[in-house]
Amino acid sequence: MLPPAVTTSPATRMVVALACLLVCQTTFRVLLTYSDYFPPNFQADFLLGRRAH
User: Is omega for the bond preceding 4 within 30 degrees of 0, making it cis?
Assistant: First the structure.
């Protein structure tokens, strides 16, 4: 026997969709900033004043 189908309200679906969108957007923005890390971009704001070894 199969369990009864779980129904979700439209509000729950909207919250899940927005949460997924937020996770995807955050991941995309983090990946975009990797160009400042590899190889190190010493002109990037967070590395100003640092020097290469």
Answer: no
pTM: 0.57
pLDDT truncated to tens, each residue of the chain (53 aa)? 777 777 889 999 999 999 999 999 999 999 988 876 777 766 777 767 766 66
Instruction: Output the six-digit token pair for 3.
Output: 């369990």
Residue 20 and residue 45: Cα distance in Å, rounded? 30
What letters, b where the CB count within 10 A reaches 16 and e where it falls short, cover 9-45?
eeeeeeeeeeeeeeeeeeeeeeeeeeeeeeeeeeeee
